[in-house]
Amino acid sequence: MKIPTYLLLLITLSQIILNPIPSVADSAYPSPYGIETTTSCQSTGADDLIPVRREVYGSGRIFDITHRLSPDMPSWGLEDGLGQFLWLPNSMKNGSLANNSEMKLPTHFGTHIDAPGHVYDHYFDAGFDVDTLDLQVLNGPALLVDVPRDKNLTADVMQSLHIPKGIKRVLFRTLNTDRRLMFKKAFDTSYVGFMKDGAQWLVDNTDIKLVGIDYLSVAAFDDLIPSHHVFLKSREIILVEGLKLDDIEAGIYTVHCLHLRMLGAEGSPIRCILIKKHWR
């Protein structure tokens, strides 16, 4: 006996109502995004699948200096971290053919990049977005330096670092790394960053085109917009913020930074790695 199509649909719907599918929130991401865990995400019989999460590769030759995105990361102006940014609307556990996530997060979150349109509205209107940034600046030899831990990055501090002419990319490790600010939920306005005079000194006295720093803003909170204005006015300097620079020796490396090509975006998450200069 052939059952009519409409009756099959009614039977299917009744089964769904009587035996509802578990919510996505209950079944998705069983190891909360895999953060700070080496436990199994899934078990198949006697074999446990244990993901390996690394930040150093090739016996210390390659360093991932990108912070892993998580709900507990600090976000600008928030006390409780970013919160949930990743959802699994289509889950194999709930009958989908494949797992398909969706995400929503600020463009200036975690390790990220600034485009000129971030603080200049006429640049924003003209289309100077992240898609216009120069990959030659974002990739190449870079100097990782330690700066004095007791002050913001002023002109005096910049002068004391004796950065040679010809250096185009500098990553500044500050007290932010020592305080592990990027690992704390609450946004901290006491982070170390550039004061306007420090930014101006760097622009006037060095050849630096890429400035990297270890918290959510390259500019100190008390000089937030003025310092950004100095750096981004020429559209020749690229700012990389929120870098993970702990446990890496100061010195010369090759840096590789790649951001998302988002049309119209004044900022973007970015993946950055350091490679030891003389590695073959």
TrEMBL record:
Subcellular localization(s) per the UniProt record: Secreted, Extracellular space, Extracellular matrix
Source organism, top-level taxon: Eukaryota
Gene3D superfamilies, A to Z: Putative cyclase (3.50.30.50)
Protein name: Cyclase-like protein 2
Signal peptide (residue range): 1-18
InterPro entries to which the protein is assigned, alphabetical: KFase/CYL (IPR007325), KFase_sf (IPR037175)
UniProt entry keywords in alphabetical sequence: Extracellular matrix, Secreted, Signal
Organism: Anisodus acutangulus
A molecular-function term among this protein's GO annotations: arylformamidase activity
Pfam families reported for this sequence: Cyclase
Lineage, top ranks: Eukaryota, Viridiplantae, Streptophyta, Embryophyta, Tracheophyta
